[in-house]
Amino acid sequence: MVPFSFCAQEICLVPAPAGRGAALYWPREQALLVADLHLEKASYFAKTGQMLPPYDSRETLERLALAVRQTGARRVFALGDNFHDSAGTERLDAHSAGMLSALTRALDWVWITGNHDPVLALSIGGTRVEEIAVEGIALRHEAKPGTREPELSGHFHPRLVVHARGRRIARPCVVHGGNRLILPAFGALTGGMDAADPAILSALQPAIEIDALVAAKDKLLRYPLWRAAA
């Protein structure tokens, strides 16, 4: 975990193994925050004949359980697009359903709905909300255009893209603009958008500067993405 300051709170960046996504841990709230799990994405595509290995939900939940153990979190806020579609809860295999049930029973779990899963079945446990405020910080799926309130969101699946020695390297990252953060996707089958994409930069306006945050061992690295004109 790599700590940093955000809106007078200590927040920790929690990278997933092998660079597969990242979560945030909020020590004061003992809360783990994840975005865009997209559970049952493979089974969704299988319905249209695009056959993918049907283990994405299991892998995502295993990494989520590991993050809970690493941080000691007692609460989880899942920031939308938790399932790839609202019917995804019905397609969970028995093993994955058991893992999810154990997690939601053991933790104070809040599902924030997203554009992929506006309706979530009660059977998955936890509490369902469209958005919620914690210590004055809004937790929602998609950044609210033009807001100046402190905010944590997901939706865009940001990745830092750098070119070095003829290689293109992409890593999930947090995007930081003023008092707002966009989390990377945590799901095993989620792709990513270049963190410097105009859609992401626009979503965090108004801002003076926007940076990508990535963890490198025990250090937090900041990569400038955008700066306001002088």
What characteristics describe this protein?
230 residues; alpha/beta; seven-stranded mixed beta sheet; Purple Acid Phosphatase, chain A, domain 2
What's a concise summary of this model?
The protein has 230 residues and is of the alpha/beta class.
Explain the overall architecture.
It is a single chain. The protein contains four helices and 17 strands. It has 230 residues and is of the alpha/beta class. It has a single domain, classed as Purple Acid Phosphatase, chain A, domain 2 (4-Layer Sandwich), CATH 3.60.21. The strands form three sheets. It has a seven-stranded mixed sheet with strand order 1-2-3-4-5-6-7, covered by helices on one side. Strand 1 (2-6) and strand 2 form a beta hairpin. The longest helix has 16 residues, at 56-71. It is globular.
